[in-house]
Amino acid sequence: MALDPQLAAQVKGLLTNIVEPIELVASLDGSAKSAELREVLEQIAAMSDVVAFREATGAELDGRTPSFAIVRTGTTVSVRFAGIPLGHEFTSLVLALLQVGGHPSKAAVDVLEQIAGLEGEHHFETFFSLSCQNCPDVVQALNLMSIVNPSITHVAIDGAVFPQEAEERGVLAVPMVFRNGELFGSGRMTLEEIVGKLDSRAAASAAASLSEEDPFDVLVIGGGPAGASAAIYAARKGIRTGLVAERFGGQVLDTMSIENLVSVPHTEGPRLAADLQRHVTEYDVTLVTEQSAAALVPATTDDALVGVDLVSGARLSARTVVVATGARWRTMGVPGEDEYRNKGVTFCPHCDGPLFKGKRVAVIGGGNSGVEAAIDLAGIVEHVTLVEYLDALGADDVLQRKLRSLPNVDVVLGALTTEVIGNGTTVTGLAYEQHATGERRSLDVAGVFVQIGLLPSTEWLEGSGLDLSAHGEVVIDEHGQTSVPGVFAAGDCTTVPYKQIVVALGAGSSAALSAFDRLIRTSAPNDESDALATAGT
Fold first, then answer.
1. What pLDDT is attached to residue 436?
2. Could you tell me which CATH number the domain at 345-452 has?
3. Is 40 helix (H, G, I), strand (E, B) or coil?
4. Which is more confidently placed, 215 or 205?
C-alpha cells in the first residue's frame, strides 16, 4: 500500500523540516498488514537522508504486530503506532515524524512547560479507528506529551487491526485512552484537557487568573459556528471581546461530511472547526478554552455588569453576553443506556462503526441522521435494525430508497425502545414495544447507535431568569435578544426553527450586532448637557 504520488510529494517536502535523524523501527510478520506497513515505512524512509528503516529485534517493541516506533536516533524519544496510521490518522503520523525529528510543536509554550513538569510515570494507550475524526486530536496530544516528557510513553492502537485486544479491554467507542492499564478517558480530548487531568494545580491557577480578567464589552459563551461568528463580528467593532468554550467547534466536530455550507461544496466538521478558530484568532478576542459555564448572573441595573460563573469556580463579567452553547446528542432515557454508554451504546457511526465489524447492531431514529447511520453501518457490520418510534421514516426519500435497497437492513416502525440489555460489561440486546399493540420484543445486538436528534445545552441557565421554551431552548426575538436585558443568544440552543450551520453563522453575527447596538445606546449621553460634558466643552 504505497502512498499516492501527490501525497508522497507533500510528505517528502515536509520531511525537510526534520533536524534530528530518526529511525522507523517496525515489528513485522508474514501477514498482509505487515507487508502494507513495511511498504509505507520503506517509502517514507526513502524520502529523506535523515530517516532510516529497520526491523525490531527481540522485545524491542511491545509485542503487537504489525507495529512500529518513530525513534530519535541515539535517544529514548519515541512515538509508537500499532497498525497503519492512514485515513484520519495520517496527519498524526506526519506530525510524529516531524516532532520526533526535532521540528518544534505549535503548542503554547506554557502548556509545553507544564507537560515537561509533570511528575510520575504515565504509560498511555489510545485505541482509534481510521474513520474517526475525533481520534487524531487525542493521538497527537499524547504523542507530543511523550516527546516532551521522558516519563510519558504512548502507543496509538488501531482497534480494527487488533480486534481481540479491543474486545478484551471493552473498547466499543473511540478514541478510548488507558493510562497505566486503567481507563483514563474516552471521546475527544484536547491537549490542555489531558494535561489538566494530570495536573490538578493548573485548574485552580487558571480559575484565579480568569477571575482577575477585566470586564468584557461582549462575552460569547460557546465555540461553535454561532459563537465564532458572534466573536468575529463583535471584535471587528473594536470592542473588548471574549469567548468561552469547553471545546472549540462544538457539535460541528462530530459531523463527518458537510455539503450544504453555501460556497463550500464539501468540508468535514473538524476542518471547519479549525477554520472557525483560525478566523477568530485573527482578531483581538480573548479565548477561554477548556472551560464551561455553570451559571448566568443577570445585571441588577441597566448599567451593571452581567456575570458568568464557570465550572472551574471563576467568574467573568461583561456589559453584554451572547449565549451560543449549542446542542448535544439527545439520549433515549431508558434503563441500560447510561450503564452501557461507550460499551455498546454510541452516538457516532463514523467513529465507532469499525469496532462492530461482523456484528449485529441497532440504529435508533428514522430521520436523516438515523437513516444515514444505518446506510453507513450496513457496509461494515453483519446486520442493521433501524428502530423508529413513528409509523413512517422522516428521512429524505433518496435516503429511504437507498436504505431499503440494502439486503442486511431491517426497519421496525412504530416501536418505542424500552431498555438496553447487557451482560454487565457490554451490550447484548435491545428491548422495544410496538406502541400500537403493546407487544414487546427484543433484538440480539452488540451495539446501539442513538440518532434521535439534539438537546439544547441550556441547563446552566436554569434559575437565571431567562425564558426557556418547553424544549429547553432560549427564547429570542428577531434581534437575538433574550428576556434578560443585555443577554443575547444564537444558534442551536435557541428557538430558531432550523438547526443548521449556515443559520447559526448568521444568527451569531446578528446577536453580536444587536449587542453592539445595545452598547451604543446604553453609553450614549442622556441629554444635551451630558453631550457637552462628554465633548469636553
1. 93
2. 3.50.50.60
3. helix
4. 215
DSSP H stretches of helix in 317-457: 349-352, 368-378, 397-404
| Residue 366: all three cell numbers together | 428514522
Query: How is the chain split into domains, by residue range?
Result: 5-189, 206-328+455-523, 345-452
* Grid cell of 82 as nine digits: 500499532
Q: What is the pLDDT of residue 350?
A: 81
The string of pLDDT tens digits covering residues 235-281 is 999 999 999 998 889 888 877 678 889 999 989 888 899 999 999 99
Cite the DSSP H helix spans in 23-120: 32-45, 90-100, 109-116
Res 535: pLDDT:
47
40 against 258, higher pLDDT: 40
* pLDDT score at 531: 46
pLDDT at residue 537 above 80? no
For the domain made up of 206-328+455-523, the CATH class stated in words is alpha beta
Cβ neighbours, 10 Å, residue 530:
11
Q: Fold match between 5-189 and 345-452?
A: no
Length of the chain: 537
Q: Is the pLDDT confidence value at 526 over 60?
A: no
User: Which residues sit opposite 524 in a β-bridge?
Assistant: none
Residue 139: C-alpha distances to residues 26, 88, 99, 202, 392 (Å): 19, 11, 13, 22, 41
Return the SS3 of 80: strand
Handedness of CA 233, 482, 306, 328 (dihedral sign): negative
Q: Residues with Cβ < 8 Å from 280, sequence gap 6 or more? A: 228, 231, 232, 235, 243, 287
Least confident of 188-197, 240-249, 379-388: 188-197
Q: How far apart are CA 451 and CA 366, in angstroms?
A: 8
Q: pTM for the complete prediction?
A: 0.76
- CA distances to 29, 47, 143, 213, 504 from 52, rounded to whole Å, are 19, 10, 20, 50, 49
* Backbone phi and psi for residue 279, each to the nearest 5 degrees, phi listed first: -65, -45
Q: Cell triple for residue 277?
A: 478558530
Instruction: Report in angstroms the alpha-carbon separations of 244 from 20, 210, 222, 325, 457.
Output: 39, 11, 6, 9, 14
Q: CB of 474 within 8 A of CB of 495? A: yes
* CATH class for the domain made up of 5-189: alpha beta
